[in-house]
Specification:
This protein has 141 residues and is mostly helical. It has 4 helices and 2 strands.
């Protein structure tokens, strides 16, 4: 059973999944920091520090904290916008790198791939090569 577990853990997709989760968590921290430390203070300046979390409605003994829900939706939208911007920038960067790489490959392919020669040219080259191999008249061999 221990051998099976080692084999399971050593499989590429488990390791890939673990790396993806770790990178995702780190990226989540970056986005959270971007929202909390840059966008939220800027929006606080623009909108006068609006905080919905204190809004509530009391019905009998129950206190409905609808302001916390509104604040959560607002935070989600800010996070989603920031994530969209970050992904958009990363895609643009990757696209530019891909174009640069493609240009280099395209130039190499153009140099390496020549169009096929016409049949008459091929035949003439074969005749030329055969004539080069034939001894010339008057020469001793």
């Amino acid at each position: 059973m221990l051998q099976e577990f080692k084999k399971f853990i050593a499989r590429g997709n488990v390791v890939d999944l673990a790396v993806g989760v770790i990178i995702g968590a780190a990226f989540g921290n970056i986005v959270t920091s971007l929202v909390n430390n840059i966008f939220t203070p800027l929006l606080g300046i623009i909108f006068g520090g609006v905080d919905f979390s204190g809004l509530s409605l009391t019905l009998g003994d129950a206190k409905i904290m609808y302001g916390a829900f509104i604040q959560s939706v607002f935070d989600f939208l800010i996070t989603a916008i920031c994530l969209f911007i970050v992904v958009k920038i990363m895609n643009k960067f990757n696209s530019d790198l891909h174009k640069i790489g493609k240009k280099g490959k395209k130039e190499e392919e153009e140099k390496e791939i020549l169009p096929p020669k016409p049949a008459d040219i091929v035949l003439l080259e074969e005749i030329r090569d055969l004539l080069k191999k034939e001894p010339k008249k008057g020469s001793k061999k």
